Amino acid sequence: MTESATETNGGITDDSTRGFALQSIHLKDLSFEAPNDHRDFSQQPADPDVQMNLKNSHKQLANDMYEVSLQLSIHTKSADKTMFLVELDQVGMFQIKGYSQEETKLLLGTYCPATLFPYARELVSSLVTKGGYPPLVLQHINFDALFANSQKKAGDGNA
Known about the structure:
The chain is an alpha+beta fold and 159 residues long. 29% of the residues lie in helices and 43% in strands. It has helices spanning 101-130, 143-158, and strands spanning 5-8, 11-14, 19-33, 49-62, 65-78, 81-97. Strands 3-6-5-4 form a four-stranded antiparallel beta sheet. 16% of the residues are buried.
């Protein structure tokens, strides 16, 4: 095994000291509820009200190991009656080493949840279908924009 080094700004940095790796993805929590009879919705409009809440969090487990959690809550109604409610917590274990504190914060707030989201999206679609409803296709989420917005709000709160 060879180690590589690159010259930057007149100094030498060892590329082998930086690393980013997805170790595992797993489902931590899952709930699906369809509290009303499906027949209640057969005469309702085909465009239900879908409310989605998203939360991203992380915790450091070891020096360079992080658990990142993407929590989704999707409440779908038609004519003020709940069609279904899906709640899930998709989790990934990420090894992040050799990055600055700011770079690590950026990876944890953008790249990690963006890696987890397709797994959560597929699970929601499959679960809703198995619950007897048409597939629910969640649109892409721009985690970079969400992270930038949260950082801006945090900065505004300190002013």
